[in-house]
Amino acid sequence: MARFGKAVLPSHARALRDIARCRTPALGGHLAECQSCGSRHIEYHSCNNRGCPQCGGARTDKWIEQQRDLLLPVPYFHVVFTLPEELRFLVRSQQRQLLPALFRAAFEALATLSRDPQYLGGRIGALAVLHTWTRALEWHPHVHMLVPGGALTVDGKWITIPKRNKRILVPTQKLARLFWGRFMSMARRAAPDVAFPDVTRKKRWIVYCKEVVQGSDRVLEYLGRYVHRTAISNRAVVSCTDRSVTFRYRSHRDDKTKLMTLSPDEFLRRFLQHVLPRGFHRVRSFGLLHPKHRTTLRRIQLMLGRGHGLASASRSSQRAILRRCPVCNAIALRRGLPISRIDLGIQPRRPKATDNGPRAPPQFEVSS
Asked: CA angle at residue 52 from 235 to 249, to 5 degrees?
């Protein structure tokens, strides 16, 4: 950040600071004790920045628990909406205006076809997650949607897609054409001063759709892979030096695992371009799954024979209570008393008072 100064966006600078401090004494911690062997360990706090590769797992477990109560006992479909290459750089430079248009265009195209009696003939719901990266960390905005395989008709009846050799939600080619028209119309309204390239529907407006494995836990775990996932995980980084960063990725051309080596500046550039503007929601609910339609969703659950309420705690919630001990390897590590940053050797340092106003908040430095 010192090298590039004000060229670094505030959201990117904050992400770098948070990731550097994540699970270090700078954020304080808790004392954890193993109930099996009696050993004690200091667990440092997480930064909870959504761009941090270390914090995604805990947020995913929490999100899964919140969504478990909203499932329907029907087949689910995974739908992916992708923009053509000609529009990607433009969307990157106008994220606050065009990324919401991508969300809305994707769902409205799907909802329009689903209302057609030829397909579902009713209202649908969807959970949508935005991803902006390829496996090689290039900019590639696309939306993942999890869609219940059914619809609510005008007269209040629920229609579930019948069991066939292969269930089809809606035809993908028609969905791609409708998505193309909706996005271009919404994007031009959202950014009227931007010159859009001439992208016809013959270009690669890719829409992918397949049925997800059934079972409520499996559906949530499937979508959980996409919800709080970051552009790259810690496990993918093979080596890191002052001159290069090497990471592992799977090539989309031959589906083989390969290594890529980049300079530190290029690696950070690729990583930080996927840190979204502050306040932007990567996960959104549409249609029947939107919070304002919660009463309707409960009624559909009752019609399908599923009462709401958590039946039992999941494995993820149990892991939140007891964790694996690094000494005896037993799942018996329980979090105990908090440890302040002062106890960890980080002493507060206050600047001198001035006549211009009250004191600034304390800053912390590690004592020698």
From this structure: 35
Q: What pLDDT, in 10s, does the model give residues 255-305?
A: 889 999 999 999 999 999 999 888 899 899 999 999 999 999 999 999 998
Cβ neighbours of residue 316 closer than 8 Å, sequence gap 6 or more: 60, 61, 64, 65
81 and 201 together in one domain: yes
Residue 58 lies in a domain: no
- For the stretch 53-59, contacts whose Cβ atoms lie closer than 8 Å and that sit 24 or more positions apart, written own/partner, are 53/19, 53/230, 53/232, 53/233, 53/234, 54/19, 54/22, 54/23, 54/234, 55/22, 55/228, 56/228, 56/229, 56/230, 56/233, 57/228, 58/320, 59/227, 59/228
Please report whether residue 60 resides in a domain: no
Separation between Cα atoms, residue 278 and residue 222, nearest integer Å: 27
Residues 9 and 152 placed together within one structural domain of the fold: no
Alpha carbon distances (Å) from 164 to 151, 160, 171, 211, 214: 17, 12, 15, 12, 14
Whether 334 and 361 share a structural domain: yes
15 and 109 share a domain?
no
Range of the domain at 119: 72-231+274-305
- What is the per-residue pLDDT across 29-79, written as a single tens digit (0 to 9) for each? 888 888 888 888 888 888 888 888 888 666 677 777 778 888 888 888 999
Instruction: Please give the tally of structural domains in the chain.
Output: 3
Nearest to 145 by CA among 112, 104, 97: 104
| Threshold 0.70, pTM exceeds | yes
Q: Are 43 and 192 in a shared domain?
A: no
